[in-house]
Amino acid sequence: MRDLSSGNRRVYLELEIRRVFCICCNKVKQEKLKFLADNPFYTKRFAFYVGKRCNTQTIKDVAVELHLDWKTVKELEKQYMREKLRRAGNPGPKVIGIDEISIRKGHRYRIIVSDLERKRVIWFGGKDRSEESMNLFYDELGVHKTRKIRLAVMDMWKAFENAIRCRAPQAAILYDKFHIIKHLNDALDKVRKSEYARLSGKDRKFIKGQKYTLLSHRENLTVEGRKALKMLLTANKRLNTAYVLKETFGQLWSYTSEAWARKFFDNWKASLKWQRLKPYEEFAELVERHWDGIAAFCKPENKVPLGFVEGLNNKIRVIQRRAYGLRDEEYLRLKILACMLPDI
């Protein structure tokens, strides 16, 4: 059986595994050695080493590096991830984050639930993003643990909201900042497209191919990107207005008083008057309809680590990119559940 390498040399252990006859059940039993992996041709510590390597590399790269079959690498990594989950346990969450990911083309979704206090994913499942699929999580969690949920952070998808109101009515609802900003970015992009369609000739050249430049945070742009953004905003007054409104809207989450947050939003909405920014007006109506769930962030007890949500989304995108082509949904489930847990 293979063990950890010594330098550049592969190490194999040779030992005898005893088989004994059990007089109680009249069967031949084989002794179990705790240091062996589920695959008896590898030690457990070697399996865990393979699992750690897969945190930063693809299965194929690890297989080539360690001279293993890729299927073997995947199974060893699965054992490593299951052990991480076993050690982490399954305590009842008090603050949950609900999101969905598309696992394949054709609107095939799975729901992801995170424990935002412990900063880990606790559930991956469902057949779609329906209320019925969301209820599967509460069924697995159980009535006792569900009653302890005090806050649910989610996007504005109605099925998630209906499920939490039915199964955990004591929980407050907070709409995720990043999903709200995504709606605002979509509105800005619609303005960009309408301006491109309205203009002609040389006025168009400043807009063409600048979607990423316009939607990105200024600090994330390169020097050339900042120059292109400055030229674009100087050349088009309506886009400049839309961009400034988009940048200032993030101030909403800096308030600790709902009254001040409301005053800021009313002023922001009033500034849309006479600007002819129809997508922004629709966005303002969306915020108005969901105000209670957005303003809930002002309450001190609802201050959750939104940076974790963004980091988790980035990790999931990396996992999906590395696992591209694999049809093993159980593998994807384990990768996502274990991605925020510490190594062992």
Order of helices and strands: EEEEHHHEEEHHEHEHHHHHHHHHH
Please give the share of residues in helix: 40-55%
Could you tell me the strand content as a percent range? 5-15%
- Regions with little confidence, pLDDT below 50 for 5+ residues: none
Number of strands: 9
- Indicate how many domains the architecture comprises: 3
Principal-axis shape equals globular
By DSSP (H or I, 4+ residues per run), the number of helices equals 16
How would you write the strand order of the largest sheet? 7-6-5-8-9
Major sheet: 5 strands, mixed
Coarse structural class: alpha/beta
Overall pLDDT, averaged?
90
Rounded radius of gyration (Å):
26 Å
Distance between the termini: 21 Å
Description of the structure:
With 344 residues, this protein is α/β, with parallel strands linked by helices. It folds into 3 domains: 2-88, no CATH class; 95-176 and 302-338, Ribonuclease H-like superfamily/Ribonuclease H (Nucleotidyltransferase, domain 5), CATH 3.30.420.10; 178-298. The chain has helices spanning 44-53, 59-66, 70-88, 131-141, 143-146, 158-167, 177-198, 202-205, 211-215, 223-235, 237-249, 258-270, 278-289, 291-295, 306-322, 329-338, and strands at 2-6, 9-12, 19-22, 27-30, 95-104, 108-115, 120-125, 151-154, 172-175. A 5-stranded mixed beta sheet has the order 7-6-5-8-9, with helices on both faces. A two-stranded antiparallel sheet has the order 1-2. The chain has a two-stranded antiparallel ribbon with strand order 3-4. The model has no long low-confidence stretch (mean pLDDT 90).
